[in-house]
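ENTRY TYPE: paired fold submission
RECORD: A
CONTENT: sequence, then structure tokens
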Amino acid sequence: MKKFNVTPNETPQLLEEIQGNAGYHFKNIALFKEAFTHPSYASEQKEPTPHNQRLEFLGDAVLQIIASDYIFKTFKDSNEGLLTKIRSNITDENANVSYTRKLQLDLALLLGKGEAAAGGRSKPSTLGDLFEAFLGAVYLDGGLEEARRVCLPLFPDLSKVLNDIQSSIKNDSKGKLQNYCQEKLHTNIHYELVESSGPVHNPTFVSVAMLNGVEIGRGSAHSKKESEKNAAAAALQYLLEQEGEEVIKPAAPVVQPSPAAPPKFTAGQKRLLALDFDGVICDSAAETAISGWKAAKWIWPDKFTEPLPPQDIVEKFRRIRPYLETGYQSIFMIRMLVDGEAETSFQYSLAEKFAVMMEDFKLTKEKLVHEFGAVRDAWIQSDLDSWLAPQNPYPNTIESLKSALQKHRVLILTTKQERFVKAWLSHFNVDFPQEDIIGLDRKTPKEETLAELVRANKKNIHFVEDRLKTLQRVAAIPSLKRINLHYADWGYGTPAELHEAKSLTRINTITLSDFYDLLS
């Protein structure tokens, strides 16, 4: 496989060969070349250089319509579920990689020096995106019919695809779960990779099965595919046990109370308050961006030459902060921004992208956590004031928190390392018991901590969180149904998440003013 970018002398002949392979010759050669320009290459050029992410976005849609039309006309009596499976089989990342290699598009791919040295030319996500960008360019240059003419010869034999799918459904928990959801619940299941850990040669993946935005099964394994199968098996068992439960049915329209009416909290009653930290008590987006940059500088010193990130990187990070689950991931997110990754791409398959980057850069979760923590420790020790400066409490939260500690039992449940939370609270003279800060150090998911509180027969439990998915995971666990769930509308959630949260009867959306009432 070619390791370096094509040379100017090689370019004309190679581009001509690719057009011959595809059976299509471009009228607009600049558009053709843009399809092969990776963001990492464009970011290294002195002059503004268009890259292929916009074409990739367009090509994905073109591929879907071509494949859907082809499958629809081929299988005239098949139901939607089966058609969807076939389409997924011929348009997923693996399929796109095979199309790229059939056309030899990868030989002309222009990568940045760092990306090329890190094995970017063999990265499945990059090769899959390349085919979509190429198809988008064909569509713009020649129209839908020319794009269809390029695509159809690349597709595998659909009868073989159908046979493979039907064979796998017989023994596959994912197929059985999908059939159950479509036939009995009239909806679809999807999977999310929520964690990857362990050494590169023997990683462990954790996937969840999601139904209507609710986690209904979780599984782990040494491959992503097997972890999804295990999640499907757990989800199927749950559905069979809870058949007919409202939590798994498509949400019906709900008439919401007037926004002007605050939630009612019983005055004078002692509560157990479990509070998220970042996005509920502390606005730390800028500090996380800077710490991520500093850690990235340790890992990639040639890439990150400045001691602090440019302000535009900090502002971009603030906008993508809703997609970060735990601090060390900011290292990869900062790297992706510097490499030219579009902000919109952070909405999709982020955990999978992190897993690929770990493998490509020979990094582990443990090493990233260590580097991120070490950066913060060094920063605090050398200049505490500058560490505190970019992370402020939300208005009036310190006073309300101090008041709550006098009246209620308060826990902080966070994905931050506990010593950093303690240092921040101490600066604001909040005397918070160390044992009641439950952070990344304990490696305990928030729902497990809440389950322990329920098992201990704690009463009047309120959980405040700005990450909707976390609240939905808790809401999906029947044994935790007596916990009061509150979505913080001032945190790092997206407008779409806020809109969704307001439609969920199990989750109470609260404002900062409501939060003060809850604490006091």
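RECORD: B
CONTENT: sequence, then structure tokens
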Amino acid sequence: MLGMHLVGSSAGTKGALAWRHRLMTKLLDGQRRITRSFHTGYLVRRSKRLAVADGSRALLPFCSCSRNTNRSPEASDSLAADERNRLHQVGQAVQCRQTAGERTLAVSLIPSWCQELRAARLARGWSEDDLADQIQNWEYRHGRGRALGVSRSYVSEWETGKRGVSRDYAIRIEGATGIPRDHFIDHRSSRGRVVRLQEAEVGLQWVDDLDGAVEMLIDLWRCRLDRREFLVAMAATAVTSEVALRWLVSPPDGRVERNAGSRWVGHSDIQAVQAMQRSLKAIDDGHGGGVALPMAVEYLRGEVAPLLRGRYTDTVGRALFSATSEFTLGVGWMAYDAGKHGLAQRYMAQALRMSHAAKDRAFGGRILAAMSHQALHLGDVRHGLDFACAARAGTQGAVTPTTAAMLAAMEACAHAARGDPSPCLRALSDAERAFDRSNPADDPAWVDFDEGGLAGHLARSFRDLNRPCEAERFAVRSIQLCRPTHLRTRVQRYAILASARAQQGDLEGACAVGRLALAEVPRLRSRRTVDDVARLVQLVGANSSQTTHDFTRQAREVLSSR
């Protein structure tokens, strides 16, 4: 299929082991690289405008540690000492203080963590500015999520109870001061309900103990789907990258039989779960994740949770964890499709843990490919590539040729999104050769990668590499091979084909295909599809003509109603 376009490659056992070593080094490199840059002074945190001799303004970068170097230790100590001798106002209450020669006692009405934070700061001789800088320094060294602003006023409001501490800030404060993050409370949750941070973090950790992992998964299923924390994507570097690394290096779970519980679980129970998962996937494929998601979560809560807490043998337990992993990943896809990216990340992370309990290495790779897909959709190319590479490195020798082709094609898409043609073409060549060896009879039931799927990945990769002729050819082929019931997939492939034509300057052809996609969008409840079409509109709208104007106007009317 790729013949004249791709470059062949081969990898032996030594190459696979070397690649796994490089991948694990890469997953850990972010922290080490940033730390080195910090200590050598090459990390630029922000810029300050300083006056120069001639009265002009110079923009000078400085390292995140440079602020402290501009202040002498004596000055910092005197600031902290001065604070110790000042009355500390906390709303309408006053903390117990030791003032000059006398002890003032009062009852504080603010949360205990306010006092704990202030005590930790003063114990280190830091002013409020110093603590703000230390939090920023820790953030830049460790890269924990999105960049958050921290100033002296934030510190003051935290210590006086005027501002709550969200999860993201709590992680940074813990890193800078050592105060456990679960000591803080998020006061900004919906309906005025006070939510402890460990509740907000449900589903984000890899739990080594299997019973604990099961309980975390059930807790996740019980959470409301409209929670604020679930509507946005969590920072991959602080969450899902760690889970992926744990999947790569964690030893297998021992025997998983369970002797407690009120009912025995048998193979018929597992077959019922698998049948329901197939039915819900069909709804998802045909109507979008927004339709299937509530039904799927309700089934997990009411039917699968009691099975996990039941009694089963080791063999049945492995099969149960395998079915649970597949179902949970399916719900993760639905949440991703519905635009609930934080929820999707949690479900995919816990699906990965369940696949590990099932000793299903191949399906673990499938989950990482899904995580890569989501990361690329969100524009997080770096982690999208990491997840795709981890999927291939962690499944060497454990997958069928069809699955190997699917994982290689996903890695190719990640390289293309990064703009790296050589590794992209190598991965596509690997995918093509593996697919040529595929035999559907050997594939697990969850494998749904066919020739149309391969053509779709090829089209997407060539589009992102700005090779629109190849992209158009494979996009046409992928649409021809699209299954009639996969409406969402067909719309997404229409969007790729239209983009390829727009890249070639064929705006009329792009708009014609775009209208085919627009005609199907109202039948779907898929935020992901809306996003794909919106990107097409942005690409076409960059060219001014009557044709593009009419298309963009029609598209905005359709998309605004979704």
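NOTES ON RECORD B: The chain has 24 helices and eight strands. The mean pLDDT is 78.
STATUS: closed
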